[in-house]
């Protein structure tokens, strides 16, 4: 019977390789540096006890506080189950399966392709050029029939910002034809680079945000879509009736209080200091070929024998993220910035590899 059940499924779902999230990949580590989470928990207390009632579709306090934080109006903000739901809502609202397409530029976040495939929408890729910047002429050649272009900035897994002038040129070439979605999941680590102020100039710009990274709430599953009111109204037509549970809305509102935002900014400052020390220490390791600059809470590095490094650290309980299969990233591992002690364990383990030397130095 099970074979017959599989035959009932859509062909594209049967053929789909699911997104390999850090938790799906498993491991028995005690140093988890593979999911770009904040390394320490932030304590919250649940204050809403009316769990017998359905929650608001768009909890007013969460929307008001995020709008104030982002410098926008509440009509420009949609809250959802992580930014992942925002990625999917945009395809569902704007793309006709079998007719329209989405486009993105690997190496980048894996959910753009999974969401498109799941919904039955074609996806096109234009590989990034040197420095992992947009290949604008190649994008222009591929735009026919494209309704949504995803640009991750800072980009996951490479850690770099996309040149804003290139994004501006992309916005000009897509005007009236497609949405440009700037995925700003890591923008708290470089807030000066946010594109929120561009929304008044570009009606087709959409920005994705999350509480999973700098706000240290990956387990909450709470993300935001920022756009002009017309786009938000369309997304409201396709979003689930109750996307946020009452406890999620409760904690999100606390995280977005003045005190919560101040704590987040303090954490970002501390994490950036640790990141710079980690980068300096990695550069001193003999097994490291190259360490790439980062505007995020993770570091991408190329190793002389990345498979051996990955497995050796895995066996020591230190779980990194292998990026070998991404275009242009052979030999690369992504290391989330953990606590100072966790980063020291990484460097100590790398130094024990044959021919390695170096230490976690002051940067």
Give a structural overview.
The chain has helices spanning 2-8, 11-14, 22-25, 60-70, 82-94, 111-119, 136-142, 164-174, 229-238, 246-255, 258-283, 306-315, 340-351, and strands spanning 31-32, 77-80, 101-104, 122-125, 146-152, 179-183, 205-210, 223-227, 288-291, 298-303, 318-319, 321-322, 332-336. It is an alpha/beta fold. The strands form 3 sheets. It has a 7-stranded mixed β-sheet, sandwiched between helices. A 4-stranded antiparallel β-sheet has the order 9-10-13-12. The chain has a two-stranded parallel sheet with strand order 1-11. Strand 5 (146-152), helix 8 (164-174) and strand 6 form a beta-alpha-beta unit. It is globular. The model has no long low-confidence stretch (mean pLDDT 94).
Q: Secondary structure elements and their pairing?
A:
Elements lengths: L1 H7 L2 H4 L7 H4 L5 E2 L27 H11 L6 E4 L1 H13 L6 E4 L6 H9 L2 E4 L10 H7 L3 E7 L11 H11 L4 E5 L21 E6 L12 E5 L1 H10 L7 H10 L2 H26 L4 E4 L6 E6 L2 H10 L2 E2 L1 E2 L9 E5 L3 H12 L12
Parallel strand pairs: 1-11, 3-4, 3-5, 5-6, 6-7
Antiparallel strand pairs: 2-8, 7-8, 9-10, 10-13, 12-13
Helix pairs in contact: 4-10, 5-6, 5-9, 11-13
């Amino acid at each position: 019977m099970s074979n017959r059940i599989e035959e009932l499924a859509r062909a594209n779902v049967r053929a789909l390789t699911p997104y390999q999230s850090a938790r799906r990949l498993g491991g028995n580590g005690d140093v988890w540096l593979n999911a770009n989470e904040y390394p320490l928990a932030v304590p919250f207390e649940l204050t809403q006890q009316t769990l017998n009632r359905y929650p608001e579709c768009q909890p007013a306090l969460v929307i008001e506080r995020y709008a104030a934080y982002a410098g926008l109006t509440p009509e420009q903000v949609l809250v959802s189950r992580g930014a992942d739901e925002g990625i999917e809502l945009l395809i569902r609202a704007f793309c006709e399966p079998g007719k329209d397409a989405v486009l993105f530029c690997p190496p980048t976040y894996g959910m753009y392709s999974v969401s498109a495939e799941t919904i039955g929408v074609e996806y096109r890729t234009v590989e990034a050029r040197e420095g992992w910047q947009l290949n604008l002429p190649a994008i222009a050649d591929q735009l026919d029939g494209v309704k949504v272009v995803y640009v991750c900035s800072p980009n996951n897994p490479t850690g770099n910002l996309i040149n804003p002038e290139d994004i501006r040129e992309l916005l000009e070439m897509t005007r009236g034809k497609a949405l440009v979605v700037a995925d700003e999941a890591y923008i708290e680590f470089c807030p000066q680079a946010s594109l929120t102020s561009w929304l008044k100039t570009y009606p087709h710009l959409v920005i994705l945000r999350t509480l999973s990274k700098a706000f240290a709430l990956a387990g909450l599953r709470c993300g935001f879509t920022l756009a002009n009111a017309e786009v938000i109204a369309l997304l409201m037509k396709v979003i689930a009736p109750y996307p946020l549970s009452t406890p999620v809305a409760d904690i999100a509102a606390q995280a977005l209080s003045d005190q919560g935002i101040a704590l987040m900014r303090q954490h970002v400052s501390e994490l950036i200091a640790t990141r710079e020390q980690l980068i300096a220490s990695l550069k001193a390791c003999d097994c490291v070929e190259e360490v790439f600059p980062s505007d995020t809470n993770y570091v991408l590095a190329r190793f002389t024998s990345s498979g051996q490094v990955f497995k050796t650290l895995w066996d020591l309980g230190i779980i990194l993220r292998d990026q070998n299969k991404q275009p242009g990233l052979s030999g690369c591992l992504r290391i989330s910035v953990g606590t100072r002690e966790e980063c020291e364990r990484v460097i100590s383990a790398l130094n024990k590899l044959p021919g390695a030397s170096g230490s976690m130095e002051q940067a």
